[in-house]
Write a structure and sequence with these properties.
Shape: rod-shaped
Structural class: mainly alpha
Order of helices and strands: HHHHH
Helix content: 40-55%
Strand content: under 5%
Radius of gyration: 41 Å
């Protein structure tokens, strides 16, 4: 079977396999194609998870929202979700929870100190009476001007 077909040229290029031999270049290209597909897929997933990794590194409160937006973008192929996740990962949302918890704790302490110590927060009638020579001020009502018709 070493003979070539009579219509074939006498000198074949090196990349053409002879009959019955293994096509080495096809195997090399198949391995190259598989590695390229895996590398491009890995790059795509690495780029796709960028907002989630950014939010995770900075310990942001909105990490869960960024992760959900990233998954939605991955499975729906709607790139707007990925852009929203990236913007949300870049923005620092103010922490409203910590000051509000501090205010609530302070108000609770004030309410406990105003009570009798047993947790009863009713305000005691310890308002000092007005001196006898001072009378409570009457509310002043401004008088309206009435204009007559001429």
């Amino acid at each position: 079977m070493d003979q070539l077909h009579p219509m074939a040229p006498h000198h074949l290029p090196f990349y053409v396999a002879k009959p019955g031999e293994t096509d080495v270049w096809m195997i090399v290209m198949a391995v190259f194609l598989i590695l390229t597909v895996l590398a491009v897929g890995n790059l795509y997933l690495h780029l796709h998870s960028l907002p989630e990794r950014m939010a995770h590194k900075s310990q942001k409160l909105q990490f869960e929202v960024v992760a959900v937006l990233g998954l939605l973008a991955l499975f729906t192929h709607i790139h707007l979700f990925w852009i929203a996740a990236l913007l949300l990962a870049l923005i620092d949302l103010p922490d409203f929870g910590t000051p509000l918890r501090s205010i609530a704790g302070s108000v609770e302490k004030i309410a406990d100190s105003a009570g009798d110590g047993t947790g009863n927060t009713e305000i005691a009638d310890e308002v000092a009476p007005l001196p006898e020579n001072i009378e409570p001020a009457a509310p002043s009502i401004p008088k309206k001007e009435v204009r007559g018709h001429a």
